[in-house]
Amino acid sequence: MTTDDTRGLAESLSRELRHLVLLLRRTTAGQPITTQQYSVLGSLEGGGRRMTELAEEHAVQLPTMTVQINRLEEAGLVARAADPADARVRTVELTDEGRTRLYAVRQSRIAYLTRQLSTLTPEERAAIDVALPALAKLGRS
Amino acid sequence: MTTDDTRGLAESLSRELRHLVLLLRRTTAGQPITTQQYSVLGSLEGGGRRMTELAEEHAVQLPTMTVQINRLEEAGLVARAADPADARVRTVELTDEGRTRLYAVRQSRIAYLTRQLSTLTPEERAAIDVALPALAKLGRS
DNA sequence: GGCGAATACTTAGACAGACTAAGTTAGTAT
DNA sequence: ATACTAACTTAGTCTGTCTAAGTATTCGCC
Q1: Which residue of A26, A40, B68, B114 pairs with A10 in a disulfide if CB–CB is 3.0 to 4.6 A?
Q2: Residues ≥6 apart with Cβ < 8 Å to B136
Q3: What residue of B is the nearest CA neighbor of A26?
Q4: Cα separation of B128 and B90, whole Å?
Q5: What are the backbone dihedrals phi and psi of residue A91, each rounded to the nearest 5 degrees, phi first?
Q6: Cα–Cα separations (whole angstroms), residue B101 to A47, B23, B42, B104, B105
Q7: pLDDT of chain A along its 141 residues, tens only?
Q8: What DSSP string runs through A92-120?
Q9: DSSP B31
Q10: Which protein residue has its CA closest to C1' of D16?
Protein backbone atom coordinates (compact mmCIF):
# COMPACT_ATOMS: atom_id res chain seq x y z
CA MET A 1 0.00 0.00 0.00
CA THR A 2 3.01 2.23 0.56
CA THR A 3 0.82 4.72 2.38
CA ASP A 4 2.24 7.42 4.57
CA ASP A 5 0.13 6.26 7.50
CA THR A 6 2.89 5.70 9.99
CA ARG A 7 0.49 5.25 12.87
CA GLY A 8 -1.55 2.66 11.00
CA LEU A 9 1.65 0.81 10.25
CA ALA A 10 2.57 0.96 13.94
CA GLU A 11 -0.77 -0.65 14.78
CA SER A 12 -0.19 -3.47 12.33
CA LEU A 13 3.33 -3.99 13.55
CA SER A 14 2.14 -3.98 17.15
CA ARG A 15 -0.27 -6.77 16.28
CA GLU A 16 2.38 -8.82 14.51
CA LEU A 17 5.12 -8.55 17.10
CA ARG A 18 3.59 -11.15 19.41
CA HIS A 19 3.27 -13.53 16.53
CA LEU A 20 6.96 -13.14 15.75
CA VAL A 21 7.86 -13.86 19.35
CA LEU A 22 5.94 -17.10 19.21
CA LEU A 23 7.75 -17.91 15.98
CA LEU A 24 11.07 -17.35 17.70
CA ARG A 25 10.05 -19.58 20.59
CA ARG A 26 9.23 -22.36 18.17
CA THR A 27 12.60 -22.13 16.46
CA THR A 28 14.33 -23.36 19.59
CA ALA A 29 11.59 -25.56 21.03
CA GLY A 30 13.04 -28.94 21.93
CA GLN A 31 16.60 -27.66 21.65
CA PRO A 32 19.22 -28.45 24.32
CA ILE A 33 19.56 -24.74 25.19
CA THR A 34 17.10 -21.92 25.61
CA THR A 35 16.58 -19.03 23.24
CA GLN A 36 18.47 -16.66 25.53
CA GLN A 37 21.39 -19.02 25.97
CA TYR A 38 21.59 -19.44 22.22
CA SER A 39 21.54 -15.72 21.83
CA VAL A 40 24.39 -15.20 24.31
CA LEU A 41 26.51 -17.89 22.68
CA GLY A 42 26.01 -16.07 19.40
CA SER A 43 27.51 -12.91 20.87
CA LEU A 44 30.68 -14.82 21.73
CA GLU A 45 31.21 -16.24 18.29
CA GLY A 46 33.61 -13.50 17.23
CA GLY A 47 35.80 -13.86 20.32
CA GLY A 48 35.85 -13.11 24.04
CA ARG A 49 33.64 -10.35 25.41
CA ARG A 50 33.37 -8.67 28.77
CA MET A 51 30.34 -9.02 30.99
CA THR A 52 29.35 -5.38 30.63
CA GLU A 53 29.37 -5.61 26.86
CA LEU A 54 27.21 -8.72 26.90
CA ALA A 55 24.68 -7.18 29.25
CA GLU A 56 24.40 -4.07 27.11
CA GLU A 57 24.11 -5.96 23.87
CA HIS A 58 21.30 -8.10 25.25
CA ALA A 59 19.59 -5.19 26.97
CA VAL A 60 19.67 -6.75 30.43
CA GLN A 61 21.21 -5.72 33.72
CA LEU A 62 24.61 -7.02 34.71
CA PRO A 63 23.35 -9.41 37.40
CA THR A 64 21.10 -11.07 34.84
CA MET A 65 24.07 -11.71 32.60
CA THR A 66 26.08 -13.02 35.56
CA VAL A 67 23.38 -15.62 36.18
CA GLN A 68 23.18 -16.61 32.53
CA ILE A 69 26.94 -16.93 32.19
CA ASN A 70 27.08 -18.94 35.42
CA ARG A 71 24.72 -21.49 33.94
CA LEU A 72 26.50 -21.62 30.60
CA GLU A 73 29.79 -22.07 32.45
CA GLU A 74 28.37 -24.90 34.54
CA ALA A 75 27.20 -26.51 31.32
CA GLY A 76 30.74 -26.23 29.96
CA LEU A 77 29.73 -24.04 27.01
CA VAL A 78 31.67 -20.92 27.96
CA ALA A 79 34.71 -20.11 30.10
CA ARG A 80 35.54 -17.00 32.09
CA ALA A 81 39.00 -15.47 31.92
CA ALA A 82 40.76 -12.47 33.43
CA ASP A 83 41.65 -9.32 31.55
CA PRO A 84 45.41 -8.82 31.98
CA ALA A 85 45.02 -5.06 31.66
CA ASP A 86 42.28 -4.63 34.27
CA ALA A 87 41.77 -7.08 37.08
CA ARG A 88 38.16 -5.98 37.59
CA VAL A 89 37.13 -7.21 34.19
CA ARG A 90 36.02 -10.77 33.45
CA THR A 91 35.98 -11.87 29.87
CA VAL A 92 33.88 -14.71 28.59
CA GLU A 93 34.61 -16.97 25.66
CA LEU A 94 33.15 -20.00 23.94
CA THR A 95 34.55 -23.41 24.73
CA ASP A 96 34.88 -25.93 21.91
CA GLU A 97 31.73 -27.57 23.15
CA GLY A 98 29.97 -24.23 23.24
CA ARG A 99 30.90 -23.54 19.66
CA THR A 100 29.71 -26.95 18.56
CA ARG A 101 26.43 -26.43 20.39
CA LEU A 102 25.96 -22.98 18.91
CA TYR A 103 26.40 -24.26 15.38
CA ALA A 104 24.07 -27.21 15.91
CA VAL A 105 21.28 -25.05 17.30
CA ARG A 106 21.79 -22.48 14.57
CA GLN A 107 21.44 -25.12 11.88
CA SER A 108 18.28 -26.40 13.48
CA ARG A 109 16.79 -22.91 13.73
CA ILE A 110 17.65 -22.09 10.16
CA ALA A 111 16.23 -25.39 8.96
CA TYR A 112 12.98 -24.62 10.75
CA LEU A 113 12.77 -21.13 9.32
CA THR A 114 13.66 -22.41 5.86
CA ARG A 115 10.76 -24.85 6.03
CA GLN A 116 8.43 -22.07 7.14
CA LEU A 117 9.63 -19.67 4.45
CA SER A 118 9.26 -22.30 1.77
CA THR A 119 5.51 -22.35 2.40
CA LEU A 120 5.32 -18.73 1.23
CA THR A 121 5.18 -17.52 -2.34
CA PRO A 122 8.38 -16.15 -3.91
CA GLU A 123 6.81 -12.69 -3.78
CA GLU A 124 6.21 -12.98 -0.05
CA ARG A 125 9.77 -14.10 0.54
CA ALA A 126 11.01 -11.17 -1.52
CA ALA A 127 8.89 -8.80 0.55
CA ILE A 128 10.46 -10.09 3.76
CA ASP A 129 13.90 -9.84 2.23
CA VAL A 130 13.37 -6.20 1.39
CA ALA A 131 11.90 -5.36 4.79
CA LEU A 132 14.55 -6.97 6.99
CA PRO A 133 17.07 -4.10 6.84
CA ALA A 134 14.32 -1.66 7.78
CA LEU A 135 13.20 -3.84 10.69
CA ALA A 136 16.82 -4.06 11.79
CA LYS A 137 16.94 -0.29 12.13
CA LEU A 138 13.88 -0.11 14.36
CA GLY A 139 14.47 0.46 18.03
CA ARG A 140 18.11 1.26 17.61
CA SER A 141 17.61 4.96 18.21
CA MET B 1 17.59 -8.65 -3.58
CA THR B 2 14.56 -10.77 -4.29
CA THR B 3 16.73 -13.82 -4.72
CA ASP B 4 15.37 -17.31 -4.46
CA ASP B 5 17.81 -18.10 -1.69
CA THR B 6 15.30 -19.24 0.90
CA ARG B 7 17.98 -20.56 3.20
CA GLY B 8 19.92 -17.32 3.09
CA LEU B 9 16.74 -15.48 3.92
CA ALA B 10 16.17 -17.85 6.83
CA GLU B 11 19.61 -16.97 8.15
CA SER B 12 18.91 -13.26 7.98
CA LEU B 13 15.53 -13.70 9.59
CA SER B 14 17.06 -15.83 12.32
CA ARG B 15 19.46 -13.02 13.11
CA GLU B 16 16.72 -10.39 13.17
CA LEU B 17 14.23 -12.25 15.31
CA ARG B 18 16.07 -11.56 18.55
CA HIS B 19 16.22 -7.90 17.70
CA LEU B 20 12.46 -7.84 17.22
CA VAL B 21 11.95 -9.46 20.60
CA LEU B 22 13.96 -6.73 22.24
CA LEU B 23 11.85 -4.20 20.36
CA LEU B 24 8.70 -5.80 21.72
CA ARG B 25 10.10 -5.71 25.25
CA ARG B 26 10.75 -2.00 24.92
CA THR B 27 7.20 -1.31 23.77
CA THR B 28 5.86 -2.27 27.19
CA ALA B 29 8.80 -1.26 29.35
CA GLY B 30 7.56 0.86 32.23
CA GLN B 31 3.94 -0.13 31.62
CA PRO B 32 1.68 -1.20 34.50
CA ILE B 33 1.31 -4.70 33.02
CA THR B 34 3.73 -7.11 31.39
CA THR B 35 3.90 -7.98 27.72
CA GLN B 36 2.21 -11.32 28.29
CA GLN B 37 -0.57 -9.82 30.36
CA TYR B 38 -1.17 -7.24 27.66
CA SER B 39 -1.28 -10.00 25.12
CA VAL B 40 -3.82 -12.02 27.10
CA LEU B 41 -6.04 -8.99 27.64
CA GLY B 42 -5.96 -8.50 23.89
CA SER B 43 -7.37 -11.98 23.36
CA LEU B 44 -10.36 -11.09 25.52
CA GLU B 45 -11.24 -7.92 23.68
CA GLY B 46 -13.83 -9.63 21.50
CA GLY B 47 -15.63 -11.30 24.40
CA GLY B 48 -15.25 -14.10 26.92
CA ARG B 49 -12.98 -17.04 26.14
CA ARG B 50 -12.38 -20.37 27.81
CA MET B 51 -9.09 -21.25 29.45
CA THR B 52 -8.24 -23.91 26.90
CA GLU B 53 -8.71 -21.50 24.04
CA LEU B 54 -6.48 -18.91 25.67
CA ALA B 55 -3.73 -21.42 26.34
CA GLU B 56 -3.79 -22.64 22.76
CA GLU B 57 -3.83 -19.19 21.27
CA HIS B 58 -0.82 -18.15 23.31
CA ALA B 59 0.99 -21.43 22.76
CA VAL B 60 1.36 -22.21 26.45
CA GLN B 61 0.19 -25.09 28.63
CA LEU B 62 -3.03 -24.77 30.60
CA PRO B 63 -1.37 -24.39 34.01
CA THR B 64 0.60 -21.44 32.72
CA MET B 65 -2.60 -19.73 31.64
CA THR B 66 -4.21 -20.52 34.99
CA VAL B 67 -1.44 -18.65 36.78
CA GLN B 68 -1.62 -15.70 34.40
CA ILE B 69 -5.38 -15.41 34.72
CA ASN B 70 -5.07 -15.69 38.50
CA ARG B 71 -2.85 -12.66 38.56
CA LEU B 72 -5.02 -10.67 36.17
CA GLU B 73 -8.04 -11.56 38.28
CA GLU B 74 -6.33 -10.45 41.49
CA ALA B 75 -5.49 -7.19 39.73
CA GLY B 76 -9.18 -6.77 38.86
CA LEU B 77 -8.56 -6.74 35.11
CA VAL B 78 -10.45 -9.93 34.22
CA ALA B 79 -13.24 -12.00 35.78
CA ARG B 80 -13.90 -15.72 35.62
CA ALA B 81 -17.39 -17.02 34.96
CA ALA B 82 -19.03 -20.41 34.61
CA ASP B 83 -20.21 -21.89 31.34
CA PRO B 84 -23.93 -22.72 31.81
CA ALA B 85 -23.66 -25.54 29.28
CA ASP B 86 -20.67 -27.32 30.83
CA ALA B 87 -19.74 -26.94 34.47
CA ARG B 88 -16.14 -27.96 33.81
CA VAL B 89 -15.51 -24.90 31.69
CA ARG B 90 -14.39 -21.56 33.07
CA THR B 91 -14.74 -18.54 30.87
CA VAL B 92 -12.72 -15.40 31.30
CA GLU B 93 -13.73 -11.90 30.37
CA LEU B 94 -12.43 -8.37 30.63
CA THR B 95 -13.64 -6.14 33.43
CA ASP B 96 -14.24 -2.47 32.71
CA GLU B 97 -10.93 -1.72 34.32
CA GLY B 98 -9.25 -4.40 32.23
CA ARG B 99 -10.60 -2.87 29.06
CA THR B 100 -9.45 0.58 30.09
CA ARG B 101 -6.00 -0.75 30.88
CA LEU B 102 -5.79 -2.63 27.60
CA TYR B 103 -6.58 0.47 25.60
CA ALA B 104 -4.13 2.61 27.56
CA VAL B 105 -1.26 0.18 27.08
CA ARG B 106 -2.12 -0.27 23.42
CA GLN B 107 -1.99 3.48 22.82
CA SER B 108 1.34 3.67 24.56
CA ARG B 109 2.77 0.79 22.50
CA ILE B 110 1.52 2.26 19.27
CA ALA B 111 2.91 5.66 20.18
CA TYR B 112 6.30 4.09 20.83
CA LEU B 113 6.27 2.19 17.55
CA THR B 114 5.08 5.26 15.69
CA ARG B 115 8.03 7.21 17.02
CA GLN B 116 10.39 4.44 15.99
CA LEU B 117 8.87 4.11 12.54
CA SER B 118 9.06 7.83 11.98
CA THR B 119 12.85 7.61 12.15
CA LEU B 120 12.83 5.46 9.01
CA THR B 121 12.60 6.64 5.46
CA PRO B 122 9.23 6.40 3.68
CA GLU B 123 10.70 3.61 1.54
CA GLU B 124 11.67 1.62 4.61
CA ARG B 125 8.21 2.03 6.09
CA ALA B 126 6.70 0.93 2.79
CA ALA B 127 8.92 -2.16 2.79
CA ILE B 128 7.71 -3.12 6.26
CA ASP B 129 4.13 -2.49 5.23
CA VAL B 130 4.47 -4.87 2.30
CA ALA B 131 6.23 -7.56 4.34
CA LEU B 132 3.86 -7.69 7.31
CA PRO B 133 1.24 -9.97 5.70
CA ALA B 134 3.99 -12.40 4.71
CA LEU B 135 5.45 -12.38 8.22
CA ALA B 136 1.97 -12.98 9.57
CA LYS B 137 1.74 -16.19 7.58
CA LEU B 138 5.00 -17.57 8.94
CA GLY B 139 4.72 -20.26 11.56
CA ARG B 140 1.02 -20.73 11.10
CA SER B 141 1.46 -24.01 9.28
C1' DG C 1 51.67 7.93 47.58
C1' DG C 2 47.54 7.66 49.62
C1' DC C 3 42.39 8.57 49.98
C1' DG C 4 37.81 9.07 48.02
C1' DA C 5 35.09 8.17 44.06
C1' DA C 6 34.01 5.48 40.26
C1' DT C 7 33.94 1.04 37.74
C1' DA C 8 33.25 -4.07 37.05
C1' DC C 9 31.39 -7.63 38.67
C1' DT C 10 28.92 -11.01 42.04
C1' DT C 11 25.63 -12.29 45.60
C1' DA C 12 21.10 -12.31 47.53
C1' DG C 13 16.30 -11.94 47.39
C1' DA C 14 12.06 -11.21 44.87
C1' DC C 15 8.80 -12.14 41.26
C1' DA C 16 6.93 -13.36 36.37
C1' DG C 17 6.56 -16.96 33.20
C1' DA C 18 7.17 -21.45 31.60
C1' DC C 19 7.05 -26.57 32.24
C1' DT C 20 5.49 -31.46 34.05
C1' DA C 21 3.00 -34.33 37.22
C1' DA C 22 -0.76 -35.10 39.95
C1' DG C 23 -5.35 -33.90 41.85
C1' DT C 24 -10.46 -32.54 41.40
C1' DT C 25 -14.71 -32.10 39.29
C1' DA C 26 -17.89 -32.91 35.56
C1' DG C 27 -19.48 -34.92 31.33
C1' DT C 28 -19.69 -39.26 28.13
C1' DA C 29 -20.29 -43.88 26.72
C1' DT C 30 -21.49 -48.44 27.22
C1' DA D 1 -23.15 -47.79 37.32
C1' DT D 2 -18.66 -47.78 36.12
C1' DA D 3 -14.89 -46.46 33.64
C1' DC D 4 -12.97 -43.17 30.65
C1' DT D 5 -12.19 -38.61 29.04
C1' DA D 6 -12.09 -33.55 29.35
C1' DA D 7 -11.36 -29.01 31.74
C1' DC D 8 -9.23 -26.94 34.94
C1' DT D 9 -6.25 -26.10 39.31
C1' DT D 10 -2.51 -27.01 42.51
C1' DA D 11 2.21 -28.00 43.57
C1' DG D 12 6.94 -28.08 42.57
C1' DT D 13 10.88 -26.78 39.67
C1' DC D 14 13.53 -24.00 36.59
C1' DT D 15 14.81 -19.84 33.71
C1' DG D 16 14.94 -15.00 33.18
C1' DT D 17 14.49 -10.70 34.90
C1' DC D 18 14.91 -6.94 38.32
C1' DT D 19 16.86 -4.04 42.46
C1' DA D 20 19.82 -3.54 46.39
C1' DA D 21 23.89 -4.43 48.53
C1' DG D 22 28.62 -6.26 48.76
C1' DT D 23 33.63 -6.91 47.04
C1' DA D 24 37.58 -5.89 44.52
C1' DT D 25 40.12 -2.89 41.58
C1' DT D 26 41.32 1.29 39.23
C1' DC D 27 41.36 6.31 38.66
C1' DG D 28 41.76 11.15 39.95
C1' DC D 29 43.96 14.30 42.40
C1' DC D 30 46.16 16.70 46.07
Answers
A1: B114
A2: A16, A19
A3: B139
A4: 39
A5: -105, 155
A6: 45, 21, 10, 5, 6
A7: 445 699 999 999 999 998 888 888 888 888 889 999 999 999 999 999 999 999 999 999 999 999 999 999 999 999 999 999 999 999 999 999 999 999 999 999 999 999 999 999 999 999 999 999 999 998 776
A8: EEE-HHHHHHHHHHHHHHHHHHHHHHTTS
A9: -
A10: A64
CA distance B5 to B25: 31
B34: closest CA of chain A, how far (Å):
13
Q: Which of A1, A33, A113 to mutate to test the interface with B (most CBs of B within 10 A)?
A: A113
**Start-to-end CA span in chain A (Å):** 26
**Contact flag, residue B95 CB and nucleic strand C, below 7 A:** no
Name the protein residue, with chain letter, whose CA is nearest the C1' of D20: A63
Interatomic separation, CA of residue A72 and C1' of nucleotide C10, rounded (Å): 16
Tell me the CA–C1' distance in angstroms for A131 and C10: 41
pLDDT digits (tens, 9 = 90+) for B79-126: 999 999 999 999 999 999 999 999 999 999 999 999 999 999 999 999
Tell which strand D nucleotides have any atom below 7 Å from a protein Cβ. 6-12, 15-21, 24-27
- The minimum CA-CA distance between B56 and chain A, rounded to whole Å, is 12
Strand partners, B130: none
